Amino acid sequence: MLTGRTAIITGSTSGIGLAIANALAEQGCNIVVNSFSDKTQDHAVAADLASRHGVEAVYIKGDMSKPDECRALVQQGIARFDTLDILVNNAGIQHVAPVDEFPVEKWDAIIAINLSSAFHTSAAAIPHMREAGWGRIVNIASAHGLRASPNKSAYVAAKHGVVGLTKTVALELAGKGVTCNAVCPGFVLTPLVETQIADRAREAGLDRETTIRDVILEKQPSKEFATVEQIGASVAFLCSDAAAQITGTTLSIDGGWTAQ
Ligand code: NAD
Description:
The protein is an alpha/beta fold and 260 residues long. The protein folds into two domains: 6-186 and 226-251, Rossmann fold; 189-225, no CATH class. It has helices at residues 15-26, 40-53, 67-81, 104-132, 153-173, 191-204, 208-216, 228-238; strands at 6-9, 30-35, 57-61, 86-89, 135-140, 178-185, 250-253. Strands 3-2-1-4-5-6-7 form a seven-stranded parallel β-sheet, with helices on both faces. Helix 3 runs parallel beside helix 4, helix 4 (104-132) runs parallel beside helix 5 and helix 6 crosses helix 7 (208-216). Nicotinamide-adenine-dinucleotide is lined by residues 10-11, 13-17, 35-36, 63-65, 90-93, 113-114, 140, 142, 185, 187-188, 190-193. The site of nicotinamide-adenine-dinucleotide has 27 residues, from helix 1, helix 4 and helix 6.
């Protein structure tokens, strides 16, 4: 159980981040929900977590493309709960195009949100965790942190970078009660992937089912999506005492993709 602990999950108003927030709240953990939009429904996500799980949950706005806002998110979370035990770097975006046509602003945004934000939030959280002698940093990387696909240069580069950052942070904190690991999902059916399904179906002139089986899940041998609940449960495991000696590694949840 994680009763009395506090977690910040970046990009947690939808998809995988929300499922991770749910899984940690289910274990009794207080939650900081984050996105960059600050809409009524973002605050409602935190209120819903609190009422369903009997924990404290707050929404804190922060644009993870901006270094100052990454660090401020952590500082505000610590100020609100007086502690920060778990940091999950989940916020991420995707853009698909060949390298020579890849828009520079998309490259910069993907590197900032998918990679640099994890550096900034970790840098802000680590002194607190080190002093407390307990902490868990979980970075949501991807099968694309371990393997490449064409047309995803920024995403693949950022996710490989996240795996490298994970190993480095783990070594710097080894023996101090603080672990750092990366979760590497294959395809998970979330809004981020729904967009890719729609785009690829249109390009290939295929129906949704064929696009999912033959195009999207081409590299995923199970031919099944991982679920957001499976990702959430895996993060909760990495935050448990059973995982205290698991650090600096990747946990693939990819239906066999990276076994190939
Ligand atoms: P999603 O689009 O449902 O969620 C992304 C989240 O990031 C949203 O809550 C969004 O608000 C947030 N976000 C985006 N830009 C932000 C910003 N500038 N500041 C703060 N928050 C921001 O996507 P998802 O599929 O749930 O992806 C979550 C993570 O999982 C990402 O890092 C993604 O790369 C990774 N991932 C997803 C899959 C998949 O198949 N869905 C596979 C492997 C890894």
